Amino acid sequence: MASESRTAAPSPTGEGAAPRPEDTPPKSDARRRERRSRRYRLDVKWSPYAYIAPFFLFFAAFGLFPLLYTGWASLHRVELTAPTDMEWAGLHNYSRLLSDEFFWNALKNTFTIGIISTVPQLLMALGIAHLLNYRLRGSMFYRVAALTPYATSVAAATLVFALLFGRDYGMINWGLGLIGIDNIDWQTGDWTSQIAVSSIVIWRWTGYNALIYLAAMQSISHDLYESAALDGASRWRQFIHVTLPQLRPTILFTCVVSTIGAVQLFGEPLLFSGSGATGGANHQYQTLGLYLYEQGWVNLHLGRASAIAWAMFLILLLIGAVNWLIARRLRKSEGDS
Amino acid sequence: MTTLTDTEPKTPDLKTARGARRLVRGPRAGRQLHGGKWTYVALVLVTVMSLFPLVWTAIAASRSNSRLAETPPPLWFGGNLFKNLEFAWHEANMGTALLNTLVVAGTVSIGTVLFSTLAGFAFAKLRFRFKNLLLLLVIGTMMVPPQLSVVPLYMLIAELHWTDQLQAVILPTLVTAFGVFFMRQYLLQALPTELIEAARVDGASSIRIVWHIVFPAARPAMAVLGMLTFVQAWNDFFWPIIALTSSGNPTVQVALTGLAQGFDPDQSVIMAGALLGTLPLLIAFLVFGKQIVGGIMQGAVKG
C-alpha cells in the first residue's frame, strides 16, 4: 500500500515544467507563476480530502455515529414512544438479556438456521461453480439463470416460499405426498420450520456464491491441472488436490460473508408465516435480528434493542477474529509450501 | 551475458504460445474441459430450481385464492392475473411504491457511485495524512449489518419528523464502505499513475484530472457498482420497514409486507403484488444479466 501512495504526485516544487528563457522575466509574470504554483501546491495537498469528504461525511453521520451511539443507548431505558427521553440504566439491559430465555432462544435459532442455511448453500455453490467451469454452449444463460434468485427481494421470495411450504395445499407437501411422505408441518415444527426458512436463504444466495467460486476457479493456472494430469490424477483428485486448495481464500471469504448474513437474518423469519415478529407461534424460528425488532418496535424497548444489537456486534467481532486467525494460518501454510 | 542471450529467443516463443492459448480459451483460461451430457442435465436442473419459484409466483398470481387452497396445486396459468394485479395495485399502493423505490434506488446508486469513485480514487492514487488509518476504518466497517445502527437512526428520524419521507431511507444508505473499497481496488490497476503525473506536469487541476482521466478510466467499474447498488437498494428491507409505513409512503418491499400482513390476506393477490415488485428487476436482469454476472465475478477476484 505504501509503494503506490508514494508515487502519486510529482514534487510540488517542480517549476521546471515550463522551460522559458530565465534572463528577462517580467515582474508580473513571475508573480503570476508563483501564485499558480502556490495554488497548485494547495491543490495537491488538499484535494484528496475534498474527494473523501462526501463519503466520510455521510459515513460518519449515518454509519459510525449510530454504531457507537447504539452502545450508549444500550445503557439507558428508552421507550419507542419517546425516543429522546433517556434514563440511565447502567448494565441493566445486559443483565436482563442474560436471564432472558427468548434471547438465548433467538441466539440458538440464529446459530442453527445459520448452519442449516450456510453449509448446504456453499457446498452446492461449489458444485454448481464446478459445472459452470466446463466449456459450455450457452454458458452465460446458465450463469444468469443461477443468479436470478439474487434479484428477487427477501419479501417476494419469502412470500412465495411460504405458499410452497404450505401444510395442506403447498406444492412441496404435494410433491412429497406423491412419493408417499405424509404432510409435513413446515410452519409449526421446530426443525421443519427452520429448514423451510433456511431454504429461502439457500435459494437466494447459492447462485451468487457459485459465481464467486467460478471467478476464483477461472483464475487458477491451467498449468497446475496439466501437471496434475501428467502425474495421473483423476478429475476428482484434481478437484480435491488442485481446485479446493487454490480456492481456500475464496471459500473463507464466502464463509465469512454468509455467516454475517446469517447473524442478521431478519426478513425471512418475519414474513414466513403470519405470526410476525415472534418468529413462529413458539418462537421456533425467531432470530436475533427479529428479536431485536420485536423488542424495539413491538414491545417498544429501544434500550433493550440496543443491547441486543451490541450482543450481535460482539458475535461479529468474534467471527472477525476467527477469520483473521484462519487467514493468517492459511497465509503461513502457503508460505511454507 | 551468455546465459541471457541463450534464454532470450525462448521467452517470446513461450509468450506467443501462451498468448495464442489465451486467445483460443478466453482471457483467463482456467480448466476448460468440455461439459458432457450430465453437466447439461445438472445445469438444467439448477436453472429449473432457480426459476421455478418465480414462475410459480406468476402462476399463483393468475389464479384465484380458493384455487390455491386445493390439491393438487396449480401448475399452469389461470385467467385471474389482471384482476389480481389490479387489486394488488390499489390495495398495496403499488403505484406510489414503485415510483418511490425507483427514486430511492436511483438516488442511492448515483450517490454511491459518485462518492465511492472520488474516495476510491483518493485511496488508490493520492497521498494524504491518515490514509491507511482511514482505509482500515472503511474496510473494518464494510460488513457491519444495519441492525447495529438502527436505534439511533430511528431516534434521528423521529426527532427530525422524517418518518414516511424518502430521505429517511436515502441518506443512511447513500454511501457504502464496500463501494469505496471496490472502486479503490479497481482504480489501483486500471488507472496508470503516470497518466495522472503527466497531467499534473501539464498543469491540470485536480478537478480536471478527475473529470478527464479518473471518470473515463473508472467507467466500467462505476457501471458495475451502480447495478449492484441498484439491486441492493431496490430490495432493501430492514431499515425501510422501520422508517416507512405501508399505508403512508412505502417502498415496494414495505408495501409488500403490508399486503402480506394485512387483514385477511388473499394469497393470489399477495403473489400478484410480489410479481409487481419483482418484475422491474427481472426485466433489468434480462437486459443487463451478462454485465451483472461479470460484475459479481470481477468483484470476487478483486475483493
From TrEMBL, chain A:
Instruction: Provide the residue span(s) of the region labelled Disordered.
Output: 1-34
Polar residues bias: start-end ranges: 1-10
Q: Where is it localised?
A: Cell membrane
Principal place of residence: membrane
Residues covered by the ABC transmembrane type-1 domain: 107-323
Q: Which Pfam families match?
A: BPD_transp_1
Matching entries from InterPro entries are given as: ABC_transporter_permease, MetI-like, MetI-like_sf
The membrane-spanning stretches of this chain are 48-69, 111-132, 144-165, 195-216, 247-266, 307-327
Going by the UniProt record, its keywords in alphabetical order are: Cell membrane, Membrane, Transmembrane, Transmembrane helix, Transport
Q: Which domain of life is it from?
A: Bacteria
GO biological process annotations for this chain's record?
transmembrane transport
**Chain intervals with Basic and acidic residues compositional bias:** 20-32
Q: How the protein sits in the membrane?
A: Multi-pass membrane protein
Answer yes or no on keyword Transmembrane. Answer: yes
Identify the GO cellular component terms for this protein.
Answer: plasma membrane
The similarity annotation says: Belongs to the binding-protein-dependent transport system permease family.
Protein name, entry field? Sugar ABC transporter permease
Organism of provenance: Streptomyces triticagri
TrEMBL record, chain B:
Recorded superkingdom: Bacteria
Name the chain's protein: Carbohydrate ABC transporter permease
What SUPFAM superfamilies does the entry give?
MetI-like
Q: How does it sit in the membrane?
A: Multi-pass membrane protein
Q: Name one GO biological process term.
A: transmembrane transport
Q: Which keywords fit this entry according to its UniProt record? A: Cell membrane, Membrane, Transmembrane, Transmembrane helix, Transport
Annotated source species: Streptomyces triticagri
The GO cellular component terms are:
plasma membrane
